[in-house]
Amino acid sequence: MSRIGIPRTLAYFIYFPFWKVFFEELNQEVIVSSPTTREIMDDGVRDAVTDACIPIKLYHGHVADIASQVDYIFGPRLVSVRKHGDFGTETFCPKFLGLPDMVRLSMDNIPEIIDVRVDLKQGKDEFFKVCSRVGVFLGKSEKEVKKAYHRALKVQKRFKKLLYQNIMPPDAMDILFAQGERKPLIAQPDLQIAVVGYPYVIYDDYINGRIVSLLEKENVKIYTQDMLSDKIMNRQARNIPKSMFWYFSNRAVYGALHYMQQKNIDGIIHITAFACGPDAIVDRLLEIEAKRHGQVPYLAIMVDEHTGDAGVRTRVEAFLDMLRFRKDKS
Ligand code: SF4
Prior knowledge:
alpha/beta, Rossmann fold, 4-stranded parallel sheet, 14 helices, 14% strand, binds iron/sulfur cluster
């Protein structure tokens, strides 16, 4: 049995259920890095190239966190996860494409990286082929891989179903794996806000300055793009003249556009990452669209390694006050 390390960041928040079940079915031990802390952040900043965006730096910190405990780091090279045919070419951002190389070149004394290439636009069976390559690497037979693959797909489906019930990914994982209690739904929220952005920023409560905890404390019901079905997302893709090239950026845009059209949504918060090239476009686009959709209140918050809870709290509280005032007046 090998110990496989999975960094608790980037694609973890969306694909972890699949890979956890897949590896465990293949009799491997899965070790996840700790939730982000100041130390993990500092390690990432130290190890990564200086001009990387903050999530990529953080990824290095998470690799450092588990490096000494595992035999392999699972760090797939994410290229594409769907054919985006009608809407233009779409891949993950270039930093995802080069991530395994970046980590290898920047960090010493790390275990071997399983950096299988995930490029699902290549064809219908491509995902199974990816899993087979991982299976072969671990010395498993095709039969074993097939069984693990189907079990993992089932769990990933259940995970997605939970997200569609407006449950945040970390809470959905608790329900699936930690027999966690379902967080009680906010029965009568004061406000309903869509929080859009990259999953690795929205669901990492450390890096985003604890926005999600703050909103929940303020009795705000939160919606994110990951709670929307593919059908809704594709409908929004049709509504804009041109999609962007990057998968996660497109999801943030489509999600925001959908929520801007919902009467129950009081405002939109876009959490954006410092030194993210694609976000410079996403943020401007959302600002324009918020105005076009009848002045939907819109707040952009940029996070970086120095983001403190206090600064974020002040801005979010001011935004909430404005939304409450607006609601009382109407
Ligand atoms: S999309 Fe932006 S934040 Fe995400 S990895 Fe690429 S550059 Fe970094």
